[in-house]
Amino acid sequence: MVDKNKLFHVIKRYFQLLKIYAGMDLASLMRDGKFMAIVIIADIVSNISSISGIFLLAWKFGGIGGMDRFEVLFMLAYGNIVMGFLNMMGGCNALFPSRIIGRGQWEHMFIMPVPYAVQLTVGIFPFTGSSSFLSGIGMLWVAVCHMETVMPWWWPGMLIFQLMISMVIVVALSYLLSSLAFYAPVQCEEISGAVVYSMGRTMTFPLTGMPMYIRYPLLTIFPAGLMAWFPSMILLGKAATFEVIYSAIFALMISLSATYFFRKGFRYYVKKGINRYVSGGHRS
Amino acid sequence: MFQAVTAPEDIAVKVESVSKVFTQWQRNKDNSGKKIAFGKKGIGNFFKQERETVSALDNVSFQIRHGEFVAYAGPNGAGKSTTMKLLSGILQPTEGAISVLGMSPEKDRIALMKKLGVLFGNRTELWWDHPVMQSFEWKKVVWDIPDTVYKRNLDMVTELLDIGEIRNTFARELSLGQRMRADLAMMLLHSPELILLDEPTLGLDVVAKRQMIDFLKKINQEEGVTILVTSHDMDDLEEMAQRILMISKGKLAFDGSFDGLRDITGNLTHFIVTTDGRELQLEGCRLLSGNRGVFEFEADLSCLPVKVLLERLSKADGVLDVEIRKAPIEKVIAQIYQAWAEPLE
User: Which residue of chain B has the CA closest to A10?
Assistant: First the structure.
């Protein structure tokens, strides 16, 4: 039976940790007014420009692959929210565990009296890392206001559910491939960054009308399609009933695989890992 | 296999038959370690490189009691940092058992880290882009330190380590000595019962080193904190610690006092003789230096008893003063390292 007091204490500590990281992020941002303005403006410009190509094409041709202009905007906004939220919550390398391994930062984590899972999830950047998330919400609002589809009452709940599934898939894939870094820390240091960023770049392409040999790999082997296009089709009511649960099942499977392989790699690391003797070594 | 051990209450650290083995890749070497010339065999070795097993620790056992201040020394690559990482749970042993403060570093990591302080001289726990005080506040939350304990310890380290002026400075702007003091202060905020220090005086100037040594001695004597420290500076270690563990090629080579360590090298003694300007030669003693009537000699008191030495000095002409010193520990250690480095017959 779970001790309620203990559970309450853990939750309380979790929020205390979030608070201190948020405070440190705000302090960094507020250190210099000009720096703060440059960071915010650069992030907003970067976010808008990263999706403007696809949106301008959709605008010019009245939509892409069976999706109208605002449905394309909805998809782009969805992807921005996914990436924006993950960057905000995990920008402090929690989203990129291979960097933590490759740079030998686990050694700092070992000596903290906090579970690893908590340490990996509290590196929040709510201020410096929120522009993508906020611009995504703004774009989503614009898209929803202009779409002709009537949303049922449960739609907001489904939106949150699908967003969570997409985020779980990105994080799980990042952890799954990062487990390789336990065996080859230097070579795989940036593997999670490469995966997450390339997923972020690929997710902006609408896959409707694409041939199967392009669409299926992007929904299975390299699931960039599950970060924006596929859930958008579900939320826009353009997916078959059985497809609605596909992304949830995929998220579950990949999470289990990531958990298994990451734990296995971690055990190898603490048994064998030391900077001088592991092939490829650690830089620290 | 790794197994948890229980330690009596007065034992802070118990290391029992611990071994740690690593493997490393060898290019252009055969199984015996000989270099292979470039040729057919060399090309084959390039594509299929050999792996060599390295025994960082080999069946090492020792115990440290609560309140002890123990030095852990050995030449480069002897296994000092590996031991520190094993004790702090960063690595797990290949074989043997470890108990730290009655807990297993592997299984009781969270509980143990609340009572353990770890400081690696070549890396910082401070937040680089924040003032030192911000790192202290962060530590308070992460270690869940009660307000009263935090305030008491903060006041203590601020005063004893003289960090009042650097508390609001960004960590990246601190000098090495300031950074080490700030790191040490942060490590002590949660009142650790045991402190593991890996090269804490690395790169420090004379003043910073003095502050560090005085502070460590003080918290050991007054607060009863158990300390295990590694350093390459043997004079520092001798000044701080009561006991020295020496490790060589992964094996524990010596466990005892610094005087005991001197004994195994033959009880070397240095003495300085001042004369009225006359030259001086002493049978059984080695002249190290001589200038304007001041001569420094070295003698092995296990071969030349002190009584005989004093007799010879009293018979020498023109002797005005004699000052006998222990051989510098650096020299003793250098002799030991040299002996260890020589290939075994």
Answer: B144
Rounded alpha-carbon distances, angstroms, from residue B57 to A256, B247, B254, B341:
36, 9, 14, 17
pLDDT tens figures, A65-99: 788 899 999 999 999 999 999 988 887 788 899 98
Answer whether B144 sits within 8 Å of A113, measured CB to CB.
Answer: yes
pLDDT in tens, A182-227: 888 888 889 999 999 999 889 988 898 889 999 999 999 999 999 9
Which tokens hold the place of B275?
């004369």
Which residues does chain B have within 8 Å of residue A108's beta carbon, measured at their own beta carbons?
A: 125
Measure the CA–CA gap between B205 and B198, rounded to whole angstroms: 17
Which residue among B125, B129, B138 places its CB closest to the CB of A28?
B129
Give the Cα-Cα-Cα angle A10, A167, A125 (nearest 5 degrees). Answer: 60
Tokens for A37? 């303005």
CB contact under 8 A, A274 and B110: no
Tell whether the torsion through CA atoms of B131, B136, B137 and B142 is positive or negative: positive
Q: Do B144 and A108 touch (CB under 8 A)?
A: no
CB count in 10 Å sphere of residue B64: 23
Residue among A111, A115, A279 minimizing CB distance to B88: A111
Q: How far apart are CA B157 and CA B197, in angstroms?
A: 17
Token readout for B82 is 């590996």
Which residue in B95, B94, B92 sits closest to B104, CA to CA?
Answer: B92
Reduced to 3 states, what is the DSSP secondary structure of residue B115? coil
Q: Judged by CB atoms within 8 Å, which residues 10-29 of A form the interface with B?
A: 13, 16-17, 19-20, 24, 27-28
- Do residues A45 and A131 make contact, with C-beta atoms less than 8 angstroms apart? no
Nearest C-alpha neighbor of A90 from the set A176, A183, A168, A35: A168
Longest dimension (CA), chain B: 73
Task: Say if the Cβ atoms of A107 and B54 lie within 8 Å.
Answer: no
Query: Is A271–B88 a contact, with Cβ atoms under 8 angstroms apart?
Result: no
What are the two backbone dihedrals, phi and then psi, of residue A179, each rounded to the nearest 5 degrees? Answer: -65, -20
* A269-283, B63-77, B175-189, B197-211, range with the lowest pLDDT: A269-283
Whether B92 contacts chain A with CB within 8 A: yes
Half-sphere exposure of B177 (CA within 13 A, CB side): 12
- Interface list for B 21-60 with A (CB within 8 A): 22-25, 54, 56
Residue type, A35: F
Q: List pLDDT tens digits, range B33-53.
A: 566 655 656 666 666 666 777
Within 8 A by CB and 6+ apart from B210, the residues are none
pTM over 0.90: no
